């Protein structure tokens, strides 16, 4: 294998060739960056109910869910519009610049969102936060490129773990720190959840040479052409004329979008359901209670994704693992309407168990879809492909909270119908989404990459 001097991608490849171990330091950096970038996404949900109430835009209590859905959707809509662009930038200029921009702008716009005093301001700042947070696609490409193939499942599971924990710890932080004048009247809390990512090494190859006029470079290129690794790169490049025509990639992205829709709809509905009054089918719990449940769930995700998931996917493969988890998830949601009839201490025990199982089912399906996507495309298009996945996923997640909020608001107004009262209808519709997810894991809908089937 011939390496180009001064090429950051070649430096990473050389390090992978010389060291067969797991790159713990790089994985830790990736884990921290992913966690920090995901915290602002979901930290608003425990206090969003009260935030909309205090904006005085909802005419009735039952209308709060309607307006809350659009605040949640604005972030995903902004990210959907720009993710492909950020992926193209990452493929052209490197993964690191996009990651740095995403962290910095997250600091700015999340702070502005916290200072919102009007409904339109909350939507605008969330939209801008999503528009400039384009690091999710490049970070998934980065984790595949920074480790050897045998460690990719672990790396991608850590990304999913950090992402899922961010979506869990974010609400926990929001739940504990929401309404500070009521909870901490003598203390003005300050959130410091941001981190720098300037230490990351670049993984994108940058070979600087001038066509065939330079004889020495021509000789070097010929050596590369004769190498087995370069032949594999040429073969993979020839099959990547168009990302949109790469059906193994596109089918795995569609699966990812369905899983993400389920994830975001559930993330929107769960706090609203838990905090709403029992007469409306809810549990009448506080934002502190929601934060505690989600914090415990986040801890289990860390343990599961680190120590359990890699062994499961190694034994069963990503596709069978996804099918099993979707079946578990469907069965679990059927029990949710009955949880509203429990009293303490059984209510807290069952709610925590259900939250843990549901969250780990979702994060398993998400990680498996990451594996399928990144095995369906070569490095030259990997960030763009992940950007496309993030764009389509963001559209899915933009529709999910708005739709979930509308359905939840409608369900609370229909508590006394004959069939599928209130919460039963909400969780039935979620189960239908998961059933579609299960169907999509079979042929001819999902086309398996050769690396996975082999």
From TrEMBL:
Domain annotation Major facilitator superfamily (MFS) profile: ranges: 26-440
Cellular component aspect of the GO annotation: membrane
Primary location class: membrane
Keywords from the named record: Membrane, Transmembrane, Transmembrane helix, Transport
Transmembrane portions of the chain: 28-52, 64-86, 98-120, 127-144, 156-178, 253-273, 293-312, 324-343, 349-372, 392-411, 417-440
Subcellular location: Membrane
PANTHER family: MAJOR FACILITATOR SUPERFAMILY (MFS) PROFILE DOMAIN-CONTAINING PROTEIN, MAJOR FACILITATOR SUPERFAMILY DOMAIN-CONTAINING PROTEIN 10
Protein name: Major facilitator superfamily (MFS) profile domain-containing protein
Organism name: Urochloa decumbens
């Amino acid at each position: 294998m011939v390496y180009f001097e001064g090429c950051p991608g070649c430096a990473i490849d050389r390090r992978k060739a010389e060291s067969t171990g797991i790159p713990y330091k790089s994985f830790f950096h990736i884990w921290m960056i992913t966690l920090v970038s995901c915290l602002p996404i979901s930290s608003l949900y425990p206090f969003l109910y009260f935030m909309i109430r205090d904006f005085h835009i909802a005419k009735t209590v039952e209308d709060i869910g309607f307006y809350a859905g659009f605040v949640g959707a604005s972030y995903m809509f902004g990210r959907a519009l720009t993710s492909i662009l950020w992926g193209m930038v990452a493929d052209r200029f490197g993964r690191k610049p996009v990651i740095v921009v995403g962290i910095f702008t997250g600091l700015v716009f999340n702070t502005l969102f916290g200072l919102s005093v009007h409904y339109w301001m909350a939507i605008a700042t969330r939209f801008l936060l999503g528009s400039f947070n384009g690091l999710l696609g490049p970070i998934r490409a980065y984790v595949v490129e920074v480790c050897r193939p045998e460690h990719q499942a672990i790396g991608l599971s850590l990304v999913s773990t950090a992402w899922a924990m961010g979506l869990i710890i974010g609400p926990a932080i929001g739940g504990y720190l929401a309404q500070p004048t009521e909870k901490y009247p003598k203390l003005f809390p300050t959130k410091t959840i941001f981190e720098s990512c300037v230490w990351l090494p670049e993984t994108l190859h940058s070979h600087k040479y001038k066509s065939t006029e330079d004889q020495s470079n021509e000789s070097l290129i010929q050596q590369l052409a004769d190498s087995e690794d370069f032949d594999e790169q040429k073969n993979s490049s020839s099959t990547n004329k168009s990302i949109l025509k790469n059906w193994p990639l596109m089918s795995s992205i569609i699966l990812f979008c369905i899983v993400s829709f389920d994830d975001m709809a559930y993330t929107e509905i769960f706090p609203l359901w838990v905090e709403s009054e029992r007469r409306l089918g809810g549990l009448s719990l506080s934002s502190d209670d929601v934060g505690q449940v989600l914090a415990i769930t986040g801890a289990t995700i860390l343990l599961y994704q680190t120590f359990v998931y890699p062994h499961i996917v190694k034994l069963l493969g990503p596709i069978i693992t996804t099918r099993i988890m979707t079946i578990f998830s469907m069965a679990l949601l059927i029990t949710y309407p009955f949880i509203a009839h429990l009293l303490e201490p059984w209510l807290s025990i069952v709610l925590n168990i259900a939250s843990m199982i549901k969250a780990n089912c979702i994060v398993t399906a998400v990680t498996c879809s990451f594996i399928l996507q990144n095995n369906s495309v070569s490095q030259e298009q990997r960030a763009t492909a992940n950007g496309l996945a993030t764009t389509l996923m963001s559209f899915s997640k933009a529709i999910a909270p708005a739709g979930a909020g509308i359905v939840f608001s409608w369900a609370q107004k229909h508590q006394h119908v004959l069939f599928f009262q209130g919460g039963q209808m909400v969780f039935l519709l979620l189960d239908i989404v998961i059933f579609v997810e299960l169907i999509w894991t079979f042929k001819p809908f999902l086309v398996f990459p050769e690396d996975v089937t082999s």
